[in-house]
Amino acid sequence: MTTCIVIPVYNHQGVIVSVIKQLKNFGLHCFLINDGSLTECTETLKQIAMHESDWVTLLERKQNGGKGAAVIDGFRLAINNGFSHAIQVDADGQHKLEDIQRFLGVSKQSPAALIIGQPLFDQSVPKKRLYGRQFTNQWIWINTLSFSIMDGMCGFRCYPLAAVDELLKATNIGQRMDFDIDIVVRLFWQGVEVINLPTDVQYPVNGVSHFNMLHDNLLISRIHAQLFFGMLLRFPKLLLRHFK
After folding, report:
1. What is the CB-side half-sphere exposure of residue 206 using CA atoms within 13 A?
2. What is the CATH number of the domain that holds 184?
3. Does the pTM of the predicted model rise above 0.70?
4. DSSP per-residue codes, 183-244
5. What pLDDT, in 10s, does the model give residues 61-109?
6. What count of other Cβ atoms lies within 10 Å of the Cβ of residue 154?
7. CA 148 to each of CA 180, 183, 216: distance values in angstroms, whole numbers, following the listed order
8. Rg of the Cα atoms in the chain
9. Residues 151 and 196: beta-carbon distance below 8 Å
10. Quick one: CA torsion of 220, 210, 122, 135, rounded to 10 degrees?
11. Domain count of the chain?
12. What domain range includes position 232?
């Protein structure tokens, strides 16, 4: 069991250096995916990759393709380099990175499972984002006929890459902010066990968010609709899982 870290980065030059410093002590290889960032962030990532070349690999995407596209490129890099698991971490400093040790422990006990962060928010969470998550999670429960996934939008996860590789070869996954929802539902459909791990999440003061309330909510609504029709096709199989 070999685990790496995958971080999609888009203009997070103000916090990514701190994130990398926090990750260094875990002794895990890190794949930084530069998703078409502007010059300042790109140069920052190049400096990180140069100074931390023994454990950081930088992949440059020429154009911004979205969070999902960047994470998927990171997964493919990890798979091609022989890693069995990948921990996805956001670049904006929201996550309590000390919990990586907990993710590793649970993943070691259940190596075939997808370990997903179940956010414990403080007062910094924007109310609109919180209500949006509640709406999304209700649709995820409908589209899985299950309460197994407690939060479908948290970008702090540990993936079993064999299952991810199988999914990516069979399905086109959402490329932007719909990615986290799409992949977790489809892995569940695929039969992957999901384990929820409570973890503190905070929204840093002056933090950089690329979530567009109109565009991304429309994108998420569309993925819920697509998954709903996919659920209908799988309804008997999903229902039978409750009786096993």
Report:
1. 3
2. 3.90.550.10
3. yes
4. HHHHHHHTT--EEEEEEEE---TT------HHHHHHHHHHHHHHHHHHHHHHHHHHHHGGG-
5. 999 999 999 999 999 999 999 999 999 999 988 899 999 999 999 999 9
6. 22
7. 15, 14, 24
8. 17
9. yes
10. -10
11. 1
12. 3-243
